[in-house]
Amino acid sequence: VQLQAFGGGLVQAGGSLRLSCAASGRTFTFSNYNMGWFRQAPGKGREFVSSIIWNGGSTYYTDSVKGRFTISRDNYKNTVFLQMNSLKPEDTAVYYCAAKSALRYGDDYDYWGQGTLVTVSS
Description:
Blueprint: E1 2-6, E2 9-12, E3 17-24, E4 33-40, E5 46-52, E6 59-61, E7 69-74, E8 79-84, E9 93-101, E10 111-112, E11 116-121
């Protein structure tokens, strides 16, 4: 299983970026997985940003991004998106996508992408 995140870059404060994460794998059924975005800022631990359940019916956000970020998914394209608006310097981090099976209970994510760097200048 491979999760490839892209769309990061350098943006000024107040700007927008759209991250994408494409999932692939011979035995991987994207619609069986809840998807999440996490981030890790320089010198800090990894933190949860947002998640979306397998059918897109429910979404979750950490408080600091509510109202600014929107997560969505396209199960036909095996892709999850994170639209980030009104970006702030404190959003600067490496952003990772991750997949968690919707067919079992548990909080652990099964697969992780390689990360894409988002840098927000003030």
